[in-house]
Each structure stands twice: as structure tokens, then as C-alpha cells.
Amino acid sequence: MFAARFERFGPPEVLSVGDLPEPHAGPGEVRIRVRAAGVSPVDLAIRAGRSRSPVTLPHIPGVDAAGVVDEGPGIGDEVFGAVDVARLGGASAEFAVLAFWAPKPPSMPWEQAGGAASGVETATRALDLLDVGAGSTLLIDGASGGVGSLAVGLALARGARVLGTGAPENREFLAGLGAIPVAYGPGLRERVPETVDAALDVAGKGSLPDLVALTGSPSTVVTLADFSGPEHGVRVSVGALGGQPDGRHGLAHAAKLFEEGRFAVPVQRVFPLAEAAAAHAVTGPRRGKIVLRVS
Predict the structure, then answer these.
(1) Distance from C-alpha of 81 to C-alpha of 135, rounded to nearest angstrom
(2) pLDDT at 51
(3) What is the rounded distance in angstroms from the CA atom of residue 80 to the CA atom of residue 100?
(4) Which stretches of the chain are DSSP H helices?
(5) Where are the domains of the chain?
(6) Mean pLDDT (the chain, rounded)
(7) pTM value > 0.70
(8) Which residues does UniProt assign to the signal peptide (predicted)?
(9) Domain at 2-116+265-293, CATH from 3.40.50.150, 3.30.470.30, 3.40.50.720, 3.90.180.10
(10) CA 237 to CA 266: how far, in whole Å?
(11) pLDDT per residue as tens digits for the range 47-93
């Protein structure tokens, strides 16, 4: 099969497209013919050699994908999902094996579906921990990136009021998502214009003391990116690829919200698979997901 892969760690230029053996679905898995695959921060870290998780070279990046099932239950179904945590890759290829998945709404573009799975599940888990619901006010620190922008949409669908921090150039993007934009960086406590019930840290840039002060308690703050959280009494939520599979319910709910017109996956840029290196090299403000079009 054709796949984007790298044979050594390094900059985006180590990526190329070539032939590798096809994977096959095991028990509790499906194999899909991939239509689109997401490019996530974990992919960049692994490629650059910054991940503590061991990977075998050559390695195919990509944890999120959408496509048509061709092995396992539901052959012919259009689905979106993510790979198993032990693989930490494999999605940026002609075929990929998914460990968890949900039916793709027929009207959902492949690019949105391909970049959704791990971010949707990660955001859903955090919102559940914070008990975000109708009438609550949520502050998301780092709201414009892949996971942050999904958390905005999912929180709004729950009936919450959302404030989102971002760089000045992302102000219009955040407002377009439905969030109240707040300037990103030090001094956050003085810039938030209203009472906050809960806070989600996606940025991991040292904002936890401010977030605890704004919400009034460490119990109302969850971080996805700052592993000093326990020092502040703040819970650290693992990503979607960790934890127990039976705790994953975000994908099916997000699909339902999409069909109701209440949720979408923000996509910043789409690249063909042949330009995987360019997709990994995107710099500047992040506004949603970077996605590879595979077939």
C-alpha cells in the first residue's frame, strides 16, 4: 500500500510517500480504506523524536482517519475514528486499522471526519469531568487549535457560554466559532470579563494558577497539557488514545450533533497525501485541524 512514512526522526522533510505492507484488522478492530487523515501534535512530536513513546521505524504518522470499512464488522460502512494507542500512527496511508470508530454522517465532509476522532474524544472527556452543561460558563485556554476549537463547539452544543483565549490574529476565528475571545498570555485573571464556572487548559503554558483563581477551586479546572496540574490540585485528563475504550462516547454524539447542524469540525488546511511534509511544516496560528486527503 502507499503511505506517508519516515525512516529517521527529524524535520518535516524526513517524510515521504512510498510502499509499505498493508495492516490487517484484529479482534475488535476495523480496517478502512482511508479517505482523509488528521495531522495532530502527537504526530509532529513523534516525527521530530520528541515523544517518550517508542515507535518502530519506518513509521507511518497519523492517529485520526475516516474512510470505508474493508475488513472487520460493517464492511462498506463509512466511519471515522482513531488507531490503537500501542500503534501511535498508521492513519496517513491507503489502509488504516481503527481501534475505535463511529458511523460518519453522510453529509459530513471527509476532511472534517478525518481530523475529528481523538480531538473529539479528548474534548468530550474533559467536558464530562468539568460537568459542563446548560447555563455554565467555561473558559478554554488555547481555544483555537485542533482540540480547543472542538471543545468550543461541543461545549456550546451543551448550552454553555464559552470564553476562549487565543492570539490577537485568532480573535475573529474564535468569535466565528461562537466563543467570546480573550487575549492569550500572562495576566489572564485581569482580562476575563465575567465569572467563570469551569476552565479547561489546552495550551499548557502556565495558566493554571490564574484558572484556579478565576473559577474559585482547583476542582473546577482540568488540564490536557500541563503535567504540573497535581501541584496545583488540578486534574490532568489523558488524551483519547489513553484510558478505557468503554469510556469513549464522544464520536457518536458529535456525529448526531453534526446531523442536527449543531457541530462542525473546524479545518484550517487540507493537503494531498503527497504533501504530508508540507502539512507537518505548517507554522503560525492554529485555527482548527490540519488534514491530509488520502483518496
Answers:
(1) 31
(2) 87
(3) 9
(4) 41-48, 110-114, 117-129, 146-157, 171-177, 188-191, 208-215, 250-259, 276-280
(5) 2-116+265-293, 120-236
(6) 95
(7) yes
(8) none
(9) 3.90.180.10
(10) 22
(11) 999 988 889 999 999 999 999 999 999 999 999 999 998 888 999 99
